[in-house]
Design goal:
The protein is of the alpha+beta class and 337 residues long. Helices cover 54% and strands 10% of the residues.
Amino acid sequence: MPRPSTSEDLVFAIDYSRILAGVLNLSNDQLPSLLAGSQLSPQQFLEKEGYICWPDQHQIITNALALYGDAGLGLRAGERYSLMTHGLVGVATMACPTVLEGLQVLSRYHPTRAQFIEQTLDADARHLIVCFELRVERDAVGQFLLDALLVSQVSTLSFLLGDRVADITIELGFPEPEYGALYHEILPGRLSFGHRVNRMILPREVGDLAVATHDASLQQWAVQQCEQQFEKLHKQASFTARTLTILRQAPGRTLGQDQVAFMLNVSPRTLLRRLREEGSTYKQLVDQEQKRLAQYYLEHTHHTIESIAEQLGYHDQSSFRRAFKRWFGLLPSEYRR
């Protein structure tokens, strides 16, 4: 699957973020602290199906790390991401006849769940080698994603291999972090840091092991569903995420759709059509971004309401108050209290 043109084009299955809320033991009433700065309301977070875009995923993980207060959160989250967490990809993997075929399915279709990793499966006469590379910057959020993926992948291997998972060798392409002991506590096999690439190495013969949950008809159905989703994502560029990124780079400025279309190198008509195909409109995205900024400024700054209205491009406070009342059912002064 070709790489998205920018990280903002990446999409993520929302299930993972809902599990993350569980790792943090957040009640529904506490979800605003996890979602602050994203375009998701608690209700959308709980009910939305499918994917969320990279800007929202990045913000949610940033908030989660701050709430948890421990950089090892990604490892703990990965412990919750079982094979069935991966939806149809998990079903297709567990239904395969052999470990090798399961790994092939996982490597091909993992982008239908989360596109932040470039994963490849190689084999030689002695080894099976799974390599994985971040598609995003390895900052605190990128490290979280890498850690969560690593533990989740090892959990999948444990499901497929049983006791033979102890034969795994894990080589990580970064220095051992301060929470390095947690890797050794959670992960089986031989683990080391400071390598050129991230990879998991298995004896070649384990690829021929039978998978206890093999089901030929289920495998065929699940692979067909995965292939359809794979092709859909292949064809669909996320104009929604790219438009939001441009809007977020110009807070307070009223960018017209013609300007944004020019910046995306498409015609205004194409931009509107692509947004409509993704279930959105330009007006809706502008409104969502204004809502996000208003909430952020009220919760995280001491700016006056008049100043916030000006920063968001409102010419008078009354227009801002009406918009805020529509978004949250409260006036800005009531919300801040």
